[in-house]
Structures are given as structure tokens and as C-alpha cells.
Amino acid sequence: MRIRKRYLMFLAAFGVLFVTACSSGKKEPAPSPAPTEEPQVIKVTATPTTKVFNMPQVTDTPTPTPTSTPTPKPTRPVTPTPEGSKWVGTWGSAQLTPGNDTMPPSPGLSGNTYRQIVRVSISGDTVQFVFSNIFGESELELSSVHAAIARDGQTSVIDTETDTLITFDGGSESTVIPAGETLVSDPVKINIKQLEYVAITAHFGKVPKTITSHTASRSLNYLLQGDHVSDAEMTGAKTATSWYFLSEIDVFTYDERCSVVCFGDSITDGYGVETGSYGRWTDILAERLTDEAATENIGVINSGIGGNSIYGGNGQAAKDRFQRDVLERAGVKYVIIFIGTNDIGYAMNKSTTDAVTKGIKDMVDKAKAQGIKVYLGTITPFNRHSYYTELHEEVRQAVNDWIRSDKTGADGVLDFDLLLRDEKDPKTMKAELANDFLHPNMKGYRAIGESIDLDIFK
Length: 458
Prior knowledge:
Structural class: alpha+beta
Number of helices: 9
């Protein structure tokens, strides 16, 4: 009933919407000092592969779920649209629960206002916002939520002329999201441009004890006591670097727009990236896509979680969140799967190779069954980091050999290992591109983002 009501309101409020048509068709030794010259960037072209692989039975822990596992029930409602139209993701984040150090600062969210700053990828003039309470054990009350164009990614200042009320359930300013559920807003008329900063400001009512969040936003967000949803600036606010309850932003379109989901761990999430810099490799990719006419209408969704692994780690296991964080994204046409480093980093024996490759293969098959093109990223080197052992290196090499083979079923390979490794010591990341020799530094993230051949999206 809620969906039908929203659909009728959608048609009545906006009639036949026009969105600009898609353009046709982007105790180890100490690290050696970084060289002064600019790093050589290798263009990573996706190598086509053929689906011929049958995964052997894996008995070692962690035990992968059986291939016959039924498809999970969708976690978010789907907004009906007129024939020939659709919603496409322009921004998104993967959801998890915060630790003690990533909880909202005092005085907390309940009864107060939180302004979240995001940078979208593609443009649109009709937008829907997705809020998630999937980990909450009680209801979440949104008393009022507004969207506005933000001045930049470094301050809380908004353009008040663009301040727009976000409504729910066919025109209501407030709403309640039950425990374990996700809610999509009504369609909202607000004009957002490519790579523009958008502020989503929420005045909260009751908030569950367990907060659904993305705890590594790499952006500044602002908490102020009381109701301040339309304030031009959150003067006196406390800052935080987590997004709370906000999981996706979609644009409405009649054209051939689509999105690419980047699915991975802390390297995708951008560990070590300067706050507010938008220097993750996914951010660089989004910038490059918007620079070319043939790819400017492809949105980029970052579904990375730091510390995540296929079978566990921080947040839900990648194999369990793949449905929500990839398959249910609006308008997804491509996925880059770059996961497995943390599984290898905790490997107890060689059988982890089979566990990792099986987990990735299952994801590939699920995405392909939904008509999504799949590209796999090779596991990057981590010598000089605590993860490194001879066993772990052997497993990493074996997994990469499989990723580069014709056994994955994927549409291509993005060889990030080849890109980042030291030619003289292939077990080690290039010093000039390394942060802690597990994660890249800002230059390393840029190298990844610049290396991806945009022809794979054309």
C-alpha cells in the first residue's frame, strides 16, 4: 500500500519528467624512502575471460555457504516508475554498525540535527533518498529531513535557496522506519550536478541503540543540538566522520544512465585518505567518467567496508552483504569486485585459496545472473606489513593466478597487483605508492583510479 501510494503521488506531482538524455556511447625491514619522480601509471585494461570454472568442495574453515543458498529477501523497497524510466544510483555507502569510537558525539542524535555531506557522481533533477535501519533493534524516527547543495566538502555551509524538504509516504515530513527495515523517500525536486556536494540534514526523534551507519565516510559531518535542518551553517556543531542511516541517493531518468558498484574492503573504502579530499580510487574513477561524453552518465557507488572480508571481518561478511550492497543498488550495470585481502591476511593454511576463490566465484555468478558485467581486481602486495608471511604470499599468488585465469566467469580483470607492485620486489608495494604497505597512499589511490580503462564501460 505504501509503495502504491508513493507511485500515484509520483505521477501526480511530476507527470512525465524529463532528464537530460544520456550522451552516446570513461619484524620486516623499514620502508625505503620514496623516490622524487612521479610514479609510472600502468593502464589496467580489463582482460576478457570465459566462464568454465567448477568450484571444488572446500572443507577448511571458514566454510563457504553452499552454492544452493537461496537468494535473500530484498532489504529495500523498489520504487515503481513509469514505463521506460528508472532510478540510478549517484551515491551510496555500505552499512554496518559503529564501534565505540565511531558513535555520534555527545549529545547524540536523538532530538538533535545531523548534517551529512556527500559528493554525488551523476546529475539529476528528481532525486530519492534511501535511509536504512537494518541493524536497529527499535524504530528510527525522522522528524524532518532536508536536502540542499553544500558549498564544499570542508564546511557545513549550504545554499539556502536550494534547501528542500524531503518527504515520505506520499507527502509526510516525518516518518518512522521499523527495526530491520529500509525506507525510500518520495521523489524530490532538487537539481544536483555532476560531482556536486550535497548536504542531507536530519532532525531525529527516537534513535535505536544500535545505529546503522558507514563509519569511515572520509568526510566531515555536523551534529548540533536541537532542530536546525534549514540553518545556512551549523555554527557551533560538533564534527564526525561517519554517515548515519543514509545509504543511497538515486536520480530519476528516462535515458540509458547506469551505475558501477565498487565492492571491496578498506582499499576501496579509502583507508588513509585525507578527510574531505575525496581521493579514494572510486572518487578518481567518478571524476574520469564524468570527463568523457560516452561515460559521463555512469554513476559510481562505493560499497567498500574497511576490515571486511568474504567470510567475516568488520561488518557483515562480504558474501552476505553482496545482495544488499551490489545487486539491490538502483540502476547497477557494472561491478568491480576487489575483495579477499583480509581473508588471506588471516589464513591458517593453503586451503584459504579455495575458500577465497569460491567466495568470489559465487559473487560473480550472482551478478551475471542479474545481467551485471563483472570485473575482478587482483589482490595487491602486502610485504612489509604484519599480514605478510610466506604462506599468505603463496595464497595471494594462487588467488591472483585464478583471478587472471579463464575460470572466473567474470568479464575481465583489473590487475591492481601489477599496477602497484615493485618491479624489483613484486611481493612489495611500490614505496612511492604505499601508506603502510598494505594500503596505498593518496598517490596510490589515484594511480588505481587512473589506471582503469574506461572502454570497459562503453
